[in-house]
Amino acid sequence: MPSLIRLGPAGLGASIGEASISLEKYHRLGIKACEIPFTYGIFIKEDKHKKEILEIKETAKKFDIKLSIHAPYWLNLNSKEKKKIEESKARILQCCRIGELLGVEIVVFHAGFYGGMDKEECYQNIKKAILEIMHEIRKKGWKIKIAPETMGKLNVFGNPDEILRLVRETGCSFCLDFAHLYARNLGNISYREIYDKFKNFPKLHCHFSGINFGDKGERSHKLTPESEIKKLLSALPRNKNITIINESPDPVGDTLKSLKILKSL
Ligand SMILES: [Zn+2]
């Protein structure tokens, strides 16, 4: 049985004008997923890029490449300032609006910081904001899903239990970042243990890369060592819809490395 695991990079290539060429190139390389990084800004504009949006959507569809979006880093659904929460929600919704036009299934985001707050209070604030965003999505009739990500730093909201509780209590999706969780557990956890926490879901959207960490968890992403790719891919089932986006400094190179390893296992 062929593997249902889709591998792809974070990144659309050099420029928005060449995005559909990048996708065609990805297809020739065997890549089946691509995450559009709005991490430093939403660089695809609804009014300015009508033609490109259509091209990206159709090229991805033609080559069966699953598109996702990573929302900007600058957001915090647990800010003490109401204005900042509203701006954060607006950024996620803007990603959803563009994503809907692009045929994207899922918008991934970093939900927020504990900010010294009681963790239950923080959870409730983030839950409330997520429900409000989902309400807007439903009102607009969009199909796109929002996915808070499991995070790598100990002072950032997003351990597996918090994310699972959000999924259960709001019906949102999630992004499982194996590298982050490895770092958050200071290396004292296996990919299999991480997967097991989420194994009851029929579909998984995941992130992976090499990672440096210290006593506060994640420090930085690094190139993905072959040994870690092997460990991760060996820990995952083949008969489940799993998308793994590589976020290393060379996401395409590391995706190709991963594809090779996947074939060899
Ligand atoms: Zn992320």
Query: How far from one another are the termini?
Result: 13 Å
Strand order of the largest sheet: 1-10-7-6
Q: Which ligands are bound? A: zinc ion
**Strand portion:** 15-25%
What integer is the average pLDDT? Answer: 96
Rg, nearest Å: 18 Å
Oligomer description: single chain
Largest sheet report: 4 strands, parallel
Decide which structural class fits the backbone. Answer: alpha/beta
Low-confidence stretches: none
Q: What is the ordering of alpha helices and beta strands?
A: EHEHEHEHEHEHHEEEHEH
Shape: globular
> How many β strands by DSSP?
10
Number of helices: 9
**Residues in helices, as a percent range:** 40-55%
Describe this structure in words.
The chain has 265 residues and is α/β, with parallel strands linked by helices. The protein has nine helices and ten strands. It has helices at 19-28, 50-62, 82-102, 119-140, 160-170, 178-184, 191-198, 226-235, 251-264, and strands spanning 5-9, 33-37, 66-70, 106-109, 145-148, 175-177, 203-208, 210-214, 217-222, 241-246. Strands 1-10-7-6 form a four-stranded parallel β-sheet. The protein has a four-stranded parallel β-sheet with strand order 2-3-4-5, with helices on one face. Strand 4, helix 4 and strand 5 (145-148) form a beta-alpha-beta unit. Helix 4 crosses helix 5 (160-170) and helix 8 crosses helix 9 (251-264). The longest helix has 22 residues, at 119-140. It is globular and about 45 Å long. The two termini are 13 Å apart. It binds zinc ion (ZN). Zinc ion binds at residues 70, 110, 149.
